[in-house]
Structure formats: C-alpha cells, structure tokens
Write a structure and sequence with these properties.
By secondary structure, the chain is an alpha/beta fold. It has twelve helices and 13 strands. The protein has one domain: Aldolase class I (TIM Barrel, Alpha-Beta Barrel), CATH 3.20.20.70. It has helices spanning 4-18, 29-51, 75-81, 131-137, 159-167, 183-192, 208-220, 232-240, 242-246, 284-300, 311-324, 347-350; strands at 58-59, 65-68, 87-90, 118-121, 124-127, 144-147, 172-176, 196-199, 223-229, 252-256, 273-275, 281-283, 305-309.
C-alpha cells in the first residue's frame, strides 16, 4: 500500500512516461491498480457514511437501492436489472443541446447517421418492416429503450415503431432532454403506446419549460420521471425548484452516477475522481449528491421513487445481462471506457485532504 504522497509521486512520474509513445506502463500495472483500489476504498467510506444516514433504504434484489414509492419505481430499470436485459434502439444521431457531461461531448457532429427507415437494434440494422421478422425469431425482451441522441428531433419517425412493439406487448421507454416536447408529440407518444419517458432535466439546468413538459407528459404517458447525471449544478438548481418539480406529479427520479469517458473527462479535470472496480471513472461527488438527495427525499416523504443509479447498479446490470446470455459464471462486459487512463486526471484526488487513505 502507498501513502497519498507516495501515490501522487508515482502517478506524476508515470504520467510523464505515459506521454512517450515508446514507453509502455505494463511494468507498473500492479502499482497503479493498488493506488486505484486505495482511492476506491476511500471513496466507499464517504459514500457508505452518507448511506448510513438514510433511514428507509429499499433494495431491489441486492442490485440497486432506492427510497420512496415502490409502486413508482420505474419498470424500465426492473427490466434492465431483473429482466432479460434492456434492448437499446438507436435512430437519431442529432441533438439540440451540448452538455458537458454527455458521453459524446465535442463529437456530436461525428456520430454516424442511421438513415431512412433503418433502425439499429442490438447492433444490427433493421428496416421497419423487419421488426415483425425479428419478433418471430427472438424471445420477447422484457423491455426496450429509445436512446441516442435526442429522439424528439425527429420524433414523428418513432410513432409507428413504438406502436409495433406495443402491439407485441413489449414495455418501452424513451430518453429526452425535453426541450422539443409539446403537448402534441407527448400525446402521440402515449397514443402509440410508449410506457415510460425519462427527462434529462440536468441538460437544461431544470428549465421551467421542461418542468412544464414533465407535467404535460403525465397526462398521456403512464410512467414519467427524471434521469440525470448527478452534478453540483443540477443538485443546487433542483432544490431551488423542488416544489415546482414535485408538483408535476412525476413518478421517479433516477440519479445517475456520472461516469466519464475520453470525450467528456477533460470537462472534469481538477475534480476528485475514482475508478469503480477498475471500470467506470466518476467524480466522487456524483454519488455523494445522490445519497444526500435520497436522504432529504426520505426525511420529507416525497411521493416518488428516488433511485441510486450508481456504478454498483451498472455493474449489476452487466452481470444480469451476461447471465441472461448464458455466459460463464461471473462473466461481465463491465470494463473501463478508456483505452489508456489519463493518470493526470487523478492528481486532484491524491491532493484532496478530504480523501483519507
């Protein structure tokens, strides 16, 4: 084990070596893993301390935790964590916003187009008419999700596909930043059979327009909630508008632990980061903010489900998907999203007096 001073010195030395393309850091692999484990253990102490202060934590089969209404916990998450996985359907390669926490930050204009009436399902391209064939061959998924990037940019293309999956009895949810939502397109989504819609309220820093659209969505779609990476900006603005948000009668708030990749990590240099199970990299404050929000929601008895969509939850998601695919016991696709970790991004956590090795 290392002291923080020793770990910082090691990482600074290795960061210099890392910039030399001819130098490989394999000889230091064990040392780096030890340091990352120490950072992770220190992070767990912080998170566990916050968790211990929440009185009424509920558990979804040991795969995730939440507080509040069990009836309002999103079925889309249950499908992901308990069902036969969550089928992602990709269509729109455009977005009307650019958020610094986005996994495609700085690369929105480089995303490959999915043109015409073609849809990407399970990594394979299908024409709309192929969906009938797909449904006759594969077992029916417990749920599917419309992701990538902002569906409402061309939402009229989605209605017939949603109706087709609804007719097949498949649960469906959709992600949106909500800016382009209108009474007309939200009603059309409900009429087509969309079961659940998730608003990334942090994308607009809790704009009043999107809050109003959440209220409209409740008129037409059964399950309506927020799913947003937990950041200080979102946390602070959420509580400034808490009453207005809760008065929309939304069902759930998925507090996503922000995880970083090569596209967005530069936006968080200088923050104290940790690596979970040598996989996802996140700011320590992200899950800490989730747990603080959950405690307030529990103490005040909000009539919603507040879900801790943490790195642990995502790890469980990968394990569940691997099990359903009949992969070997313990096998998982959970892994780092970096080809090579930027060691200088971890200087801040090793200089942070709040982090105790």
């Amino acid at each position: 084990m290392y002291t923080k001073g020793e770990a910082l010195k090691l990482f600074k030395e290795l960061s210099i070596l890392q910039k030399n393309e001819d130098v490989k850091l394999l000889d230091y692999d064990e040392a780096m893993k030890i340091v990352f484990l120490q950072i992770e253990k220190a992070t767990s102490k912080i998170h566990d301390n916050l968790l211990s202060k929440i009185k009424n934590v509920k558990n979804l089969d040991k795969r995730t935790i939440y507080v509040g209404s069990e009836q309002k916990f999103p079925y889309g998450c249950k499908s992901c964590l308990l069902g036969n996985g969550l089928g992602a359907i990709r269509k729109t390669n455009k977005c009307n916003l650019e958020c610094k926490f986005c996994y495609y930050y700085g690369e929105l204009d480089k995303q490959p187009a999915i043109v015409g009436d073609v849809w990407e399902i399970g990594g394979t391209l299908f024409y709309e008419q192929d969906i009938d064939l797909l449904l006759t061959i594969y077992d029916k998924p417990s749920g599917i999700a419309y992701v990538y990037l902002e569906p409402l940019v061309e939402i009229e293309k989605y209605y017939p596909v949603i109706k087709k999956f609804n007719d097949a009895g498949i649960y469906q949810h959709l992600y949106t930043n909500g800016v382009l939502a209108t009474e007309e397109n939200l009603k059309s989504l409900g009429d087509a059979g969309l079961d659940e819609i998730r608003f990334n309220l942090g994308a607009t820093n809790c704009s009043d327009k999107v809050i109003h659209n959440i209220e409209i969505a409740k008129k037409y779609i059964k399950s309506v909630g927020i799913e947003t990476p937990m950041t200080p900006e979102f946390f602070n603005t959420f509580f400034e508008k808490k009453d207005k948000i809760l008065n929309t009668n939304l069902d759930f708030i998925n507090c996503a632990e922000l995880h970083l990749n090569e596209s967005n990590i530069a936006n968080y240099f200088g923050e104290s980061l940790y690596m979970s199970r040598q996989g996802y990299v996140s700011p320590i404050w992200s899950r800490a903010l989730t747990l603080k929000l959950m405690k307030i929601a529990d103490d005040e008895k909000w009539n919603v489900a507040i879900h801790d969509c943490s790195n642990h939850t995502k790890f469980a998601r990968h394990l569940n998907a691997s099990n359903k695919l009949k992969r070997p016991f313990g096998n998982s696709s959970y892994s780092s999203e970096f080809n090579e970790l930027p060691l200088d991004a971890f200087f801040a956590v090793l200089e942070d007096d709040y982090i105790d090795f």
